[in-house]
Amino acid sequence: MTSRRTGSKIHTGSKIIVPVVLSGGTGSRLWPMSRTSFPKQLWSLVSERSMLQETVLRGKAAGFAPPVVVCNEEHRFLIAEQLREVSVSHPKIVLEPVGRNSAPAITAAALLVAQTHPDAVLWMMAADADIKKTEALAQGMKKAVEAAEQGRIVTFGMTPDRPETGYGYIEKGEPLPGVEGAFTIRSFREKPARDAAEEFVKNGNYFWNSGMFVFRADVLLEEMRRYAPDVLENVKNAVEKRQTDLDFIRLDKEAFAQSPDISIDYAIAEKTEVSAVIPADLGWSDVGSWDSLWEISPRDAENNVLVGDVLTEDAHGCYVRSEGPLTTVMGLDDVVVVVTRDAVLVTRKDCAQDVKKLVERLKKEGRSEASVHQKNYRPWGFYEGLIRSERFQVKRIVVAPGGKLSLQKHFHRAEHWVIVEGVALVTRGEEVLLVRENESIYLPQGCVHRLENPGKIPLTLIEVQSGAYLGEDDIIRMEDSYNRN
C-alpha cells in the first residue's frame, strides 16, 4: 500500500473549524482483523497509514484547528501514539467511560469546544471512513461551512453508484437560499430493501447518508436542548465533572452512563428543522465490510486484491489478505480470505455483510478470538502470545525506549524473563538489577516486580509464565506511570 494525500487547503476566512473524530466503533464485519482490542480504524487498510490517521490528517491538511477525538478508554494510548506519529499537535482526546452511541459523544465534544468558542464550526466524522476525492471534499466543506454559519446542521449526501442496501439514504428537498449546491432535507430513509434501493438510485433525488456533519457548536447544543434534553443534561454533567488524566479528558462515568444510548440521526438529525444536505461525489466508503474494501482497493489483472504474503492461481475477483503465514488461493472466484496469527476467515464476497453474525456466535461460545488479538498493545509497547498450555504460557514482550511497566505482583503465577534484545532494568523485591541480552531473571510467585527499558532501542524478551492460573486479571498494581486502575 502507498500513502496518499488526505486533503486540500480550505479557505474559510478566520472562522475556527474544529474536526471532531468519533473512534468508538469495533467494525465487527471486518473480523478477524478488526476486534474490540484493536478495531478497524487503527489498522492500515486503505494506505500505509491507519484509517484514524487518514481522517485526522484531512483536517490538518485543510488548515483547521487541532482535532477532538472521542474514543473509549481501552484505546487511549494507541490513539495518542497514532496521532503523534503523524505530527498532530495539541489534540483533545476525550474518553467515553461507557459506550452511548454518537449523540452523547458529539454533545460532549460540542460542550468542550463551546467553552472557549461557542460559535466555532465543528466537522464531525467517523474515524473509519475512506474519502478518495480530496478536491471535491474541499469544495463540499466550503459550502457546508457557509450553511453552518447560517445556523444549519449540514450533512454530506454521497452520490450513489449502486443500489446499496447497507446504507441509509437522504432525500434532498428545496435549494438552500444563499448556499449554492446545498439543499434542505425532505426525509431520511433507513437501510432499504433491494427494490427500494434500486428505485432510490433511479430517482436521482436520494443520496447515501455519510454520517458526516458540519454545524456550529451553539446550534447543535440548542437542537439537543430542544429534541434530546436528557442527553444534553447528562452529558453536560459528565463534562462539568470531568478529570484530566495525563493527556486525556476523562468524562464522569456516573453522569455519562445516565445518557440515553442514541445516534445523532435519531436524536436530532431526523427531527430538526434546520438540517441541510450537500450532495457530493467524494469517492466515499464506510469500509464496513471486506467486499466494500475490495471495491475501493487497487486490483490486479485478475481483479484480485492481494495484501501480505499471498499467492493465487486461477483465482478471480478475490480479496486475499495475510497478516502472518504464506496464504495461497487456487481455483476460486469472488471469495474473501483473511488470515491473522490466530484466526482465518473464508467466505464468498456476497456473504461479507454477515461476518458480524459469526462474531456474535464466537462471543456466545466464549471465544477470545471474537474480541482480542494475540498481539496486545499497551502504553509501554506490546506483548503477544506464542504458546499456551494449561499451566504455562510463553509470550514475547516488547518495551519501547523509556517504557515502564507497572510495579506489580501476581498471586497465582511465577515468571521467567529471557532478554533477547536490548537492556532491561528490573525491580525484584528490594533489588534493582540490570539484565542484558542473553541473560535471564526469575520472578517467584507473589514477588513485587517491575520491568523498564532504560535504553535507546526496543527491549525484547521472552516471558515464560507458570502457575495454576494465567489470566491477565491476576495483576495487582501498586504503582503505574500511566494511571491505569
UniProtKB/TrEMBL annotation:
* Native organism taxonomy: Bacteria, Pseudomonadati, Pseudomonadota, Alphaproteobacteria, Acetobacterales
Question: What SUPFAM superfamilies does the annotation carry?
Answer: Nucleotide-diphospho-sugar transferases, RmlC-like cupins
Pfam families, alphabetically?
ManC_GMP_beta-helix, MannoseP_isomer, NTP_transferase
Q: What is its EC number?
A: 2.7.7.13
Instruction: Give the reactions, separated by semicolons, that this protein catalyses.
Output: alpha-D-mannose 1-phosphate + GTP + H(+) = GDP-alpha-D-mannose + diphosphate
Which family does this protein fall into? Belongs to the mannose-6-phosphate isomerase type 2 family.
Span of domain Mannose-6-phosphate isomerase type II C-terminal = 366-480
Q: Which domain of life is it from?
A: Bacteria
Domain MannoseP isomerase/GMP-like beta-helix: start-end pairs: 311-362
Q: State the species of origin.
A: Acetobacter farinalis
Gene3D superfamilies linked to this entry: Jelly Rolls (2.60.120.10), Spore Coat Polysaccharide Biosynthesis Protein SpsA, Chain A (3.90.550.10)
For this UniProt entry, the molecular function terms from Gene Ontology, in alphabetical order, are: mannose-1-phosphate guanylyltransferase (GTP) activity; mannose-6-phosphate isomerase activity
Q: What is this protein called?
A: mannose-1-phosphate guanylyltransferase
CDD domains this protein is in? cupin_PMI_typeII_C, GDP-M1P_Guanylyltransferase
Q: Give, as one word, the top-level EC class.
A: transferase
